[in-house]
Amino acid sequence: MFNFSAGPAALPLPVLERARAELTDWNGSGLSVMEVSHRGKAFTALAEAAEARLRALLSIPSHYRVLFMQGGATAQFAAVPLNLTAPGAKTEYLNTGVWSAKAIEEAGRLGVAVRLAADEAASRYTRVPDRQSLRFDADAAYVHYTPNETIGGVEFPYVPDTGSVPLVADMSSTILSRPIEVGRFGLIYAGAQKNIGPAGLCLVIVHEALLGGARADVPSVLDYTRLAAHGSMLNTPPTFAWYVAGLVFEWIEAEGGLAVMAARNRAKADLLYGAIDASGLYRNPVERTCRSWMNVPFMLAPAELEATFLREAAAEGLTHLEGHRSVGGLRASLYNAVPLEAVEALVGFMREFERRHG
């Protein structure tokens, strides 16, 4: 089976096999990792090792704190303004898809003044704004953007230059898929269920200068400063998800790091987009300069063939190719754990399907 799910997504097979082998006897304890105290020495060592590997993979500077939080990326739509603004403060958002729109809506619910520095709704979210068109207010508390929109398959080919204003990025779909320069961001957050591990965990990487300014009414479990002070263990964390994330970090390290992941991911995306562009049956709606490496939506003409495509693909072991329910169509997600062989199998099936149905 080849799993093209957008999330919860495929996990590396070696990670799954190791988790299975250790499920009832972790670390020689005779217990599952899900059964031990998160404050015990064994789990504390696991947590510290996971953070150290993540720091090494992403070259995270020492003046950034790494938080392992709950609630997924959606909780961060509220946590970011609650931690980085006072009521009525000005913020700027780039609206490039469903997830950035949800972040904008949540900030507005919290009384934050939101200015859209860019709004691609009119393009039906098929592109990102031109870099030269962006203008940011120096008085904004932060600028928020979504580097990759999982649903629309739109990706920024650049990092916006916000000057002295902190840049906040929802990297749920792109983190660990390639090297990034963490120092260009004030805060990065990422739901785990793409390239990190099981759903339920969210990583936050935050510059120390942004700590200490949370609103008085911020819930404790969303307060970055409190979480940093307690090593992300203000309350019981999602221990199994943290454990698996550590295994994923170890797997990436063993595979050669993020440069290797980037080369693989670029090759997978090029192969699939090449097949779509060479076809008379399939179409990708995104402008070529803004196409996502991670999430590739495509449509069939006629659309009535999509149900047949999905049924026949599943029979060939190619699963979770449905587009998001809000937009329809088809979508293949190509996260780190999806091997090149999976994309080769998908492209082969697509060509054969077009031969029979095109």
What's the short story on this structure?
With 358 residues, this protein is of the alpha/beta class. The chain contains nine helices and 14 strands. It has two domains: 2-8 and 257-357, Alpha-Beta Complex (Aspartate Aminotransferase, domain 1); 22-255, Type I PLP-dependent aspartate aminotransferase-like (Major domain) (Aspartate Aminotransferase, domain 2).
Can you describe this structure?
It is a single chain. With 358 residues, the protein is of the alpha/beta class. It has 2 domains: 2-8 and 257-357, Aspartate Aminotransferase, domain 1, CATH 3.90.1150; 22-255, Type I PLP-dependent aspartate aminotransferase-like (Major domain) (Aspartate Aminotransferase, domain 2), CATH 3.40.640.10. Helix content is 35%, strand content 16%. It has helices at 13-22, 41-58, 72-84, 98-109, 224-229, 239-255, 258-277, 306-315, 340-357; strands spanning 2-3, 64-69, 90-95, 113-119, 143-145, 148-149, 154-155, 167-170, 187-191, 202-207, 282-283, 295-300, 318-319, 330-333. Helix 1 (13-22) packs across helix 6 (239-255), helix 2 crosses helix 6 and helix 3 packs across helix 4 (98-109). The radius of gyration is 21 Å and the shape is globular.
- Main structural class: alpha/beta
Global mean pLDDT: 96
**Total E-strand runs:** 14
- Proportion of residues in helical segments: 25-40%
User: Which percent range describes the beta-strand content?
Assistant: 15-25%
Rg to the nearest angstrom?
21 Å
Counting H and I runs of at least 4 residues, what is the number of helices? 9
Order of helices and strands: EHHEHEHEEEEEEEHHHEEHEEH
Overall geometric form: globular
CATH topology of the largest domain: Aspartate Aminotransferase, domain 2
Specify the CATH architecture of the largest domain. 3-Layer(aba) Sandwich
Distance between the termini: 25 Å
Task: Sketch the major β-sheet.
Answer: 7 strands, mixed
Q: What top-tier CATH class of the largest domain fits best?
A: Alpha Beta
Going across the biggest sheet, name each strand in turn: 2-10-9-8-5-3-4
What is the CATH superfamily classification of the largest domain?
A: Type I PLP-dependent aspartate aminotransferase-like (Major domain)
Q: Number of domains in the coordinates?
A: 2
